[in-house]
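Person: I have long wanted to understand how a fold can be written as tokens. Underneath my words sits a plain record pairing an amino acid chain with its backbone structure tokens. Those tokens are not coordinates but codes from a learned vocabulary of shapes. I should like you to check that the lines agree and flag anything odd. The protein I mean follows directly.
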Amino acid sequence: MRVTVHRKAHFNAAHRLYRKDWSFEKNDAVFGLCNNPNFHGHNYELVASVTGEIDPETGYVIDIKTLKDIIKSEVEDAFDHKNLNVEVPEFKDLNPTAENIAVVIYNKIKPKLNPNFHLEITLYETPRNFVTYSGN
């Protein structure tokens, strides 16, 4: 039986959406207020969903504490109260859109899991704007 386990997490972070190789005017036309040179912030909500077989010995797909600890070390400690553009190495040359943040989170968590697990990341940038990524 394949079952999906979900874990919610939260982090606050600032970012600016822009491309270094574009003029300010082009960035402003494409990214609007999100191109603010002084950055802006979000209260991100994350849902990490792990799908796998139920272990007959434990009754778990994954120990939720294990998933919680992975999210804390790989996401919350790395992103919370940070300027993504400036303080998070993964975004040095990658525009920190919600889409790209979700892929980065996936790539940080996936190697820490049993390779037989399917991982899906849902990232809420606002209560109404969110993205989902589940690998290639």
The longest strand covers residues 2-15. The beta strands are 2-15, 40-53, 82-83, 118-124, 130-133. Helices lie at 24-31, 64-79, 84-87, 98-109.
